[in-house]
Sequence to fold (279 residues):
Amino acid sequence: MEIKKKQNIIIHNPETRSFPADAFYPETGEKLPLVIFVHGYKGYKDWGAWNLMAEKFAEAGFFFVKFNFSHNGTTVEDPSNFTDLEAFGNNNYSKELSDLGRVIDHFIEDPKVDDQKIILMGHSRGGGISIVKTSEDERINGLITLASVDTLERFPENDDLENWKNEGVYYVLNGRTKQQMPHYYQFYQDFEQNYHRLDVERAAEMAKAHFLIIHGTDDESVPVTHAEHLHILNPNSEIFLIEGGSHTFGAKEPWMEKELPKDLNTVTEKCIDFIREKM
Fold:
């Protein structure tokens, strides 16, 4: 079966700005479940082995979409490098939820998509965003989190928070690119102003979609306790732990191999089986 790849489709969002998305799908006359992958903090659609994961989903009979958030620090012209740190600094959760809504709106209209089978799959912070979106958008039938956070309240505390307010910006080193990445104080203000909407715990409890929680037991960025907590919040969810699994399930940037890393392959196969069973 031939796999179609449409890359860097431009999605327009008047609330934020335009951003690129990719679609991977098999050439078939059947309507396909739509799986939308939501990247995390300092992530982007072409990071690491995400393209190989997209191909595996397409080969399994899914319409797989991945995209860059409009303010993730990349640009339409350069979707794989953090060349717009000003945009990165002006990102916030409300913008990400708006972008995700636009992605759903765009691809749900594709004649190849079964609009009764919409699945969000979020990695890390993208998992938290996906949980919130699922709780407020009835079109979403399936929710998969990969190494997800159980809260979006991940900010400096006490004196550091006060310093951030006074300075207006704080910087985080990107270990891979060595860039000092800015976060403007508006990020925290947006969270405070939308505290109830951005409550991941409440959203997890309310989510009515079929819910799969996947996490590595050796996650160095988001402890596995986050996954266990999400499972307690939503007892109808299924939890699947990768013994010894890392935050990116063995993937790294750049990923030069032609095959998925072992753990990420296991994750992908589990996701495919879950969707087939539940949808």
